[in-house]
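Crash report, auto-generated. Payload:
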Amino acid sequence: MREREGITMIDMFSYAFMQRAFIAAIIIAFIAPCIGVPIVLKRLSAIGDATSHSALAGIAIGLLLGINPVLGGLIFSVLAVLGIEFFRKAFSKFSEIAAVVIMSAGIGLTALVSGFITSGAANLNAFMFGSIVAISDFELWLTVILGAIVLSAFALMRHELFFITFDEEAARLSGIKTGLVNTVLMLLTAITVSVASRVVGALMISSLMVIPVACAMMIGKSYRLTVIWSVIFAQIFAVFGLIISYFADLRPGGTIVLLGVITLIILMIFKRGR
Amino acid sequence: MDEILKVDNVSFDYRDANVLRNVSFTLNRGDFLGIIGANGAGKSTLIKLILQILPLAGGSIELFGTDLAKFRDNHRIGYVAQKASSFNSQFPATVGEVVMANLYSKRRHPFFRYSRTDHKKCDEVLETVGMLEYKDKLIGNLSGGQQQRVFIARALISEPELLLMDEPTVGVDAIQCAQITDIITRLNQGGMTIVMTNHDTPELIRLSSKLLIFCSHGNGEFLNRADLTVDEVNTIYAGKRGHHHD
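Recovered output after restart:
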């Protein structure tokens, strides 16, 4: 680790950009695993990837047109989940096609648009892999508000989400409007992806939805505990990932995700050894 | 007598096969209907029509005197499907969580929290199916028969008056099978109306008070078990009635 000489943890927190980065990362590390649990257990992890690549296209267009890139990412994430629903209905027996088509469209559009970005190329790179220094006050507020919306929706729909995730048919028979809840879950995924693109990076966010959940499934003894452990793991990865990336001058998104992968491997070895 | 279920002139076609043809019968409170017929005869189709999993194309169905299209009291109906059909054995959920989930059918609003009474009710239904000691265990770690008893408990927590069971003992070992049969018998003796299909025809005839036998061309023959002579029962046992067109 290339430690910055003479800089302490207290110094780190004295910087306004680091305070913003930590607040944003902590919020993201709450919402990403909450949404990740139903997404992973419904075997829809590919949707996270498809949405994040579409968000990147929106970010690139935002950078090109001078619109706030996080807003651009949000609009394209929402369009992506609506597109996935459209293709899922068209290929009802091969629903994985939907995620691949939307992901391809997202990557293709990003590639096209990025060719026209002259001054903000480094900025696009920061959105792909995350950046500590980049969060503006507006983006922090957007993160706080959208994070509150996602968390509130998750808390209100926790019974429905559990039931639908475990047994969709039984959930529908109990009176749950499964189509509506699934659509809301997709929209919450879109919001989470766009909010997280600044700090964690659009290419990394689906990992933050999946890896903490995978770690939690190694030790969780119930659905409730799996959700709680997912949030704890995500918080640990986000906070320590940011600290490491600050002191070692590394990309935060990559550091956070790799910390998660290493933890998952250790847990798997530990569990196999028992 | 309370009329629980009225099926009137119901027909249903899949794309390439006529499955049900003008099926009619009425069940009163406490009846136990056994549906008998070969594979593909329309037994599951009929249950799916009652549950609105399949759309009703011809005829009408009334639940508790209300037309199916207007029926909203989902908690009054319990459903137990064939063994763990769509559930992933690695899913991290406890028996208690799975059973409690079905309380939604009684609440139907997003703000509800489980109360102490809800937990007590969960303990009660798990006790009914003999699974209380497994309440905190992961459902994926249980045997098929134990999982099926949990799913019966899940159906019971909403206090249904009509319990629909589609081959609840498929893939379940003989001892668990007998335990499940015993649970169903006790529920019926307690006044619950039951509709059940089962691959074990003699056992189903023994349990039922009413029989719906699917003959050729999807016509259901509705009979009172008590009216059948020994010879007629033997004929059904031997499978001479209940053959489907395909």
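Post-recovery validation: The CA atoms of residues 145 and 172 of chain B lie 5 Å apart.
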